[in-house]
């Protein structure tokens, strides 16, 4: 059973033919590719918010080659350690949907899974993995899900809003939050910037009880120039390369790069 809610009035959405409707008459069509656009115009900063198509395609190639499956395994470990089947699970800022799809596949149970991203292109790409996930174009600052209906939220490298998370999670529900540490992909930073700034990550801590928080480090070997460029291009660093440094892209080949992330499991009360 789903817990989709109207992004305008927050009443439950009920399936009505090829649309979802709330009791106040707000209506949202299911797109041909099987996703629902629940992003309101006021929640959009631009016409095409979120990651762009090039970056999403690079992300898709990179993830499908399994380079970040170490991260997926950590998320799965936390999911199965803290929550039990069947779950109501939301993957916030799911991008092109790889992790959401793999979570569904690995859980292999009756969990109800939602993948939400502000990028319509990302969600359209995600529908190709499976139609068995509620793929939603939406904003993490106005999550179109009923109050206190989710067991767990996963949020990997994305924008989170504490109030909305608290509203959507059941009492004692969990959030599995994956964030980049300062030395994440440091080899790319060394290539691109004159000076590497080590920023504090205090601003991405959430105001809930920390159940577990640990660093995960791994060196991955990108096997081809294409793989190296894919990873670089799915990060913001790519867009910060100064003109006079562009030539480094031509010199790239296979590449060793450091994954350095933090996984924090919070529980709301
Ligand atoms: C770095 S990507 C991570 C995607 C995915 N979690 C992954 O790890 O492959 C960040 C994602 O957050 C999405 N995003 C940014 N702001 C958002 C918002 N306010 N609400 C929902 N998604 C948002 C972007 O469109 C992008 O797909
Ligand atoms: Zn409504």
UniProtKB/TrEMBL annotation:
Q: Which residues form a coiled coil?
A: none
- Is this entry keyworded DNA repair? no
Per its UniProt entry, which superkingdom is the organism in?
Bacteria
**Annotated Gene3D superfamilies:** Vaccinia Virus protein VP39
- Xref: InterPro entries: Diverse_substrate_MTase (IPR051052), Methyltranfer_dom (IPR025714), RlmA_N (IPR048647), rRNA_m1G-MeTrfase_A_prd (IPR016718), SAM-dependent_MTases_sf (IPR029063)
Where does the 23S rRNA (guanine(745)-N(1))-methyltransferase N-terminal domain start and stop, copy by copy? 5-39
Q: What name has this protein been given in UniProt?
A: Methyltransferase domain-containing protein
Organism for this UniProt entry: Massilimicrobiota timonensis
């Amino acid at each position: 059973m789903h817990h989709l809610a109207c992004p305008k009035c927050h009443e439950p959405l009920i399936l009505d033919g090829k649309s979802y409707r709330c009791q106040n008459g707000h209506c949202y069509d299911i797109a041909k590719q099987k996703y629902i656009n629940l992003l309101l115009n006021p929640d959009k900063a631009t016409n095409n918010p979120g990651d762009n198509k090039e970056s999403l395609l690079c992300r898709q190639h990179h993830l499908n080659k399994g380079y970040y499956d170490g991260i997926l395994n950590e998320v799965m470990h936390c999911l199965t350690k803290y929550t039990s089947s069947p779950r109501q699970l939301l993957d916030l800022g799911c991008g092109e949907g790889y992790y959401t799809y793999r979570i569904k596949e690995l859980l292999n149970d009756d969990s109800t899974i939602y993948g939400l991203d502000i990028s319509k292109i990302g969600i359209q790409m995600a529908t190709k993995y499976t139609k068995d996930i509620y793929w939603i174009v939406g904003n993490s600052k106005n999550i179109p899900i009923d109050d206190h209906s989710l067991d767990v939220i996963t949020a990997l490298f994305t924008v989170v809003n504490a109030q909305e998370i608290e509203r959507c999670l059941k009492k004692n529900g969990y959030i599995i939050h994956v964030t980049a540490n300062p030395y994440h992909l440091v080899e790319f930073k060394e290539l691109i910037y004159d000076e590497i700034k080590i920023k504090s990550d205090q601003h991405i801590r959430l105001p809930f009880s920390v159940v577990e928080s640990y660093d995960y480090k791994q060196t991955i070997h990108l096997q081809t120039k294409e793989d190296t460029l894919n990873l670089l291009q799915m990060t913001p660093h790519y867009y910060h390369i100064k003109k006079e440094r562009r030539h480094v892209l031509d010199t790239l080949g296979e590449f060793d790069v450091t994954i350095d992330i933090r996984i924090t499991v919070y529980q709301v009360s």
